[in-house]
User: Fold this.
Amino acid sequence: MIVEYSGISYTDDFMAAKKLIDEEKETLYLHPDTKVILNAAFSNSALKQVYCTPKLAKIEERAFYGCKLLYEVILNRNLKYIGDHAFSECGMEKIIIPENVEYLGESAFSNCKHLKEIKLPKNLTEIQANCFDNCISLPSLEIPKNVKVIKECAFAGCKNLKYLDLRNVEVLENRVFAESGITVIDISNEMVNFDLKALENCAIKRINFYGTGKELFESEHLKELLDMCKGMIHIKLPTLEELVDSGMSYKEANDYLRNNP
Assistant:
């Protein structure tokens, strides 16, 4: 059984929003009991504003795909899942992803050409393939410290993106920054898999390596990167204060710096 509430069709218990009935509707307020927005429920609609209710836990694939007029999205604290292509080709300039989100899908915000500001949740561990592909207005982004994997083409085509701190990232996949405006990235010896095509056809000018020359040259994987990016890699030794902040004693920190020129 399907029921209607405020121009939207739902399953009979209001737990899942199915589709927009009122095609001229511009502002979306979900039923208070809604926990799921189903696949392609509001895709290619004329929505301009979306306000998620507290119980919403899941936005399925392509839920708002192609909502080019959508300029404001307020997500709720309990949201845990944003599906593939959920907001692809939308018109918003800013969005805050709640801290409880555990999965941010492939191409979730791809081709959001007006997107200028996004905040990612601290507990996110992976950035999926094509997640921000062709977000041409995005100038900067803070990568949470728990993100260990950035998958292929995640930032491809981000022409306005210039710098990213990737010191906690372990894996960069194929064409992550392809055709982007990225000029500077920070990496460290945490990096265990840096696909040599990650920087394909981008504007990279400098790679800051946080660690020691010894760590860089002893890693077979990082040596490949060193060979490919001759003249671009700059070794940035940690300061005494940074080492102490990381948990070393002053003696241990001094010994580290003395032994790693």
Summary: The chain has four helices and 20 strands.
